[in-house]
Structure formats: structure tokens, C-alpha cells
Amino acid sequence: MMLRRQALTLGSLLLSALTLGGWSLFRQKDKSPLLLSARDDSDGRHYAVGYRLDGRRVFATQVGQRCHDIINHPTYPLALYVARRPGTESYLIDLRDGRLLQTIASRPNRHFYGHAVIHKSGDWLYATENDTTDPGRGLLGVYRFEGERLVHGGEISTHGIGPHQVAWMPDGETLIVANGGIRTEAESRVEMNLDAMEPSLVLMRRDGTLLSKETLAQPMNSVRHLGVASDGTLVAGQQFMGPAHESAELLAIKRPGQPFVAFPVAEQQLQAMAHYSASVAVHSELRLVALTAPRGNRFFIWDLDSAALRLDAPLPDCAGVGAVADGFVVTSGQGRCRFYDCRQKTLIAQPLELPAGLWDNHLHLA
Q1: What's the DSSP call for residue 22?
Q2: Nearest residue to 172 (alpha-carbon basis) of 105, 247, 118, 101
Q3: Nearest alpha carbon to residue 126 among 175, 90, 77
Q4: Is the domain of 168 the same as that of 285?
Q5: Closest C-alpha to 233, from 199, 267, 212, 263
Q6: pLDDT value of residue 256
Q7: What gap in Å lies between CA 99 and CA 130, rounded to an integer?
Q8: Residue 117 lies in a domain
Q9: Domain boundary among 162, 195, 212
Q10: Cα–Cα distance between 100 and 103 in angstroms, integer?
């Protein structure tokens, strides 16, 4: 038995070494970021894709359900493409060639909410999920990595309703959860409780201990997406579910040691968002925050510290946004993807040689 355990351990270490070696060579061969996102084709088929910023396709893997956000492993060449709400399948993909390693099915009476995070150790993954026996009761499904597979290991409460995005504070141990506050039933995107929404921003420990729970002034302002700076400043993008004539605070901020409050966005920009923000990203080095508003066909960038507007640009059905060395990359559901060079006072837009259109609302750069 001892010899068998030693052999298994040696085999696991050898597999890890080979996997890490392959990932290291893959990264050394091409140091440009790998853009990961979900796309559909014109026939409605769903794909998990990886592209270089110069337009080279690394992979396009057809999957059974539409995906939303993506999170890559800190060590291995793996990424999880998370099902879009109310999807029941997420996909573990090999980033070197797009090979589908595993289809992760949600547990009975659960569905995914589109987002997940991986602990810095690489051992644990946390995914936002819905309890369909008590619709909207927020959960983090806890999964453990066993080699190139994920195994369900439990669940913890998000201390709220309808969790959407989950992220890490810079310590890598404190979880941030954007509880959207909306109840939805299984296999549905229909909102059940618009007259009694309970959106919140939660900070919690990995064991589920609640550290703080904060709300914004408007109860129908669903907290959805997150961006976190290296100093612990976090921003949240909202989707307003209230009357069309009301103005809504669609970007909010929580600075270290301060309360969760609206980011000072001018009324002109708020009106242009059409009550909906899709993706938010923070550039820690350049101290900028970017936000996409696809219903308003607008892309925005602000100074994170002064709140000065740096960019208000038209972009058809703008979708995902992510920070790269010199600025931001933004995708479009209908038009060209773009790179915005943000190093100078005047921001410069450059079209990217990526496929046009049909991109989902998130992208991740590995």
C-alpha cells in the first residue's frame, strides 16, 4: 500500500511538472496576453475562445451552453468558462489548445450565475450559484482541483440574494460578492421580486464568515460586476430595474476603510448608459476605471482617484473590457474590438484584428 501511494504521488508530481513545463513554454513562446471570452456564431452555436491581441486564434471550442465570465488557474494552463445564468454546465479548458478537459454540471437544484474565482493556492474554486428550492438564495459553490479536474466540495452562503460576480480583495483571502438582489427560478431569467429587491455588496472570509454588507440608496439598483485595484479600492457596475424616467447610479466605489457609495458620474453619462452596465475593469497602474454600457452603445473611462471623465466613446453593443499593460481592450457584440492606449492625456483607439461581433459581455486576459 505504501509503495502504491508513493507511486501515485510520484506520478502526480510528474504530471504537474509536464503540465507546468508545457505552460511555461507556451507563455515563453508568445508573451502577449491571451484574450479569453465566450462567443456565438451566426447559427447560435456557443464557443469558448482564446485569441492573441494581434488576431491570431489559439482555439475556438464549441460548448453546449452559452458562457459568461472566465477565470484562469494561477499555475496550470487551465481556465473555467462559467455558464451564463441560468446555465447548468461550465467548461474546464486547456489554454494551450482549447481541449475540453471537463464539463462541470451544477448540483441538483442549483444553477450557475456566470462568475467564479480561483484561490491563489490553485486548490479551490468558488462559483456564484442559485438555490432553486429557495429561489435567489445566494451560494458560492466550492470546488476542489484534483489534477485537471474539479470536484464539488460544498457550498457557503453569500449573505444575499442573486449573487452575480465574485472577486478577491488584494489579500487573496477575502471574497467580494456582488449580490444582485433579484430572485429567479430555475431555467429562467424572469425577475420574481422587482418590488422587493435586496442588492448588496458583501465582504466575507473563505469559510463564509460575513465581514460587511452594504447597500446603495436605490433598492432597485442591482449590484452586478466588480473591478478591484491593487490598493483595495473596488468598483461595482449596476443594472437599474426601476422606472425608465428615474436616474440611476450605475457605477459605485468602495475605497479602503470607506463606505460603499456612488461614483461621481455626470448625469449626461448616466443617461447615455440606458440603465445598464455590462462589464467593469480597473487599471491599477494607470489608476483608471473602464465600463461598458451596451444598451447605450457607449464605452467610458474615468480617473479612479479624481473621477475625471477620460473617455466617453460610441461603441456598438460594447461588451467585455479588460486591462492590459498600456490601457484597455474592449470587445463588441456587433462591431470591431478595440484597444485604447491610455498612457497619454489623449486616449488613442486602435481597432484590433479580432473577429467582429457576437462576443459575450466579459473577457479575461491570461
Answers
A1: H
A2: 118
A3: 175
A4: no
A5: 263
A6: 97
A7: 28
A8: yes
A9: 212
A10: 8
**267 part of a folded domain:** yes
Q: What 3-state DSSP class applies to 226?
A: strand
Supply the CATH number for residue 130's domain.
2.130.10.10
Decide if 233 is inside a domain: yes
List the 221-228 sheet strands across, edge first: 221-228, 234-240, 251-254, 260-262
Round to whole Å and give the CA distance between 365 and 133.
35
Whether residues 318 and 345 share a domain: the answer is: yes
Same domain, 160 and 297: no
Within this chain, do residues 131 and 237 fall inside the same structural domain, yes or no?
no
Q: What is the DSSP letter of 125?
A: E
* H-only helix segments in 30-150: none
Structural domain total, the chain: 2
Alpha-carbon gap, residue 236 to 248, rounded angstroms: 13
Residue 23 has pLDDT above 70, yes or no: no
Domain co-membership, 94 together with 172: yes
Q: Which residue, 81, 84, 50, 80, is CA-closest to 66?
A: 84
Q: How sure is the predictor about 206, in pLDDT bands with cuts at 50, 70 and 90?
A: very high
Average pLDDT estimate for 76-88 = 95
Query: Quick check: 1 pLDDT over 90?
Result: no
Question: Does the residue 53 lie in any domain?
Answer: no
> For residues 62 and 42, what is the distance between their CA atoms, to the nearest angstrom?
13
Nearest to 54 by CA among 337, 327, 292, 291: 337
Query: Which residue type sits at 254?
Result: K
Q: What is the pLDDT of residue 334?
A: 87
Domain match, 176 and 232 both: no
Work out whether the CA dihedral 245, 298, 165, 212 comes out positive or negative: negative
Domain of residue 330: give its range.
216-366
CA neighbor of 40 nearest in space, from 273, 360, 267, 315:
360
Residue 90 burial (C-beta neighbours within 10 Å; 0-12, 13-18, 19+): buried
**Do 221 and 365 reside in the same domain of the chain?**
yes
Which residues contact residue 344 at a Cβ distance below 8 angstroms, ignoring those fewer than 6 apart? Answer: none
Instruction: Of 77-86, 153-162, 190-199, 328-337, give the lowest mean pLDDT range.
Output: 190-199
Locate 349 and state its grid cell. Answer: 483607439
